[in-house]
Amino acid sequence: MMRRNGMEAFASEDVAKADAVLAWAREVLPAKADHSEFETMIVHHARFGMVGLRRGVGVMTAAITAYDRYKEQTSGREGLIALGYAGDPGERLELVCERKRSFSSETKWGLMWKHIFCDNDGRQLIWKTGKAIEETKVKLKGRVKEHGEYRGIPQTVVTRCSIQPAS
Predict the structure, then answer these.
(1) What is the DSSP letter of 26?
(2) Tens digits of per-residue pLDDT, 59-100?
(3) Helix (H) and strand (E) counts in the chain
């Protein structure tokens, strides 16, 4: 883990992730044959020792999500497919999960959050709710609504959930 000026204020895992994203943007992305416009911007802004422009800050912030997706895609897609789903539709689940990412969108019912979790086995669980979540590790209790897929990866959609921070 690298410590630079002013980085002491950030949690060490956040600094480590930032270093990993920069390394990916400087080493892996440039070697890729075809770049999207967004990937080209990531490579460009990662070349500098500091992100200074507002646009650069936005691009590098979004690069974290792109990096997470890259890691998911390269971490054994076949293994994720083989894991299958968590529970059967209608079944009640109680699992310790890690929240991988969350994002919100405005709907006709108000702000809706989509939280993507992975259980200890690596299976993906999706919960759509009006609640924002800050915790990374949680104990999730809910009911399996349905099974679905996203880009060929099995996802278990859960509903009527309650969460508590995992110990």
Answers:
(1) I
(2) 888 888 888 888 776 666 666 666 789 989 999 999 999 998
(3) 5, 5
Going by DSSP bridges, is the β-strand pair 124-129/153-165 parallel, antiparallel, or unpaired? parallel
Q: Residue 49 pLDDT more than 80?
A: no
Whether 69 contacts 36, CB under 8 Å: no
> Quick one: tokens of 148?
């679905």
* pLDDT value at residue 71: 79
Count Cβ atoms below 10 Å from residue 116 Cβ, excluding itself: 19
The secondary element (H helix, E strand) that includes residue 115 is: strand 110-119
CA distances (Å), origin 74, targets 5, 69, 125, 158: 32, 9, 19, 26
Residue among 152, 137, 25, 158 nearest 76 (CA): 152
Which pLDDT score is estimated for 2? 46
28 vs 63: CA distance, rounded Å: 13
How far apart CA 87 and CA 140 sit, in angstroms, is 13
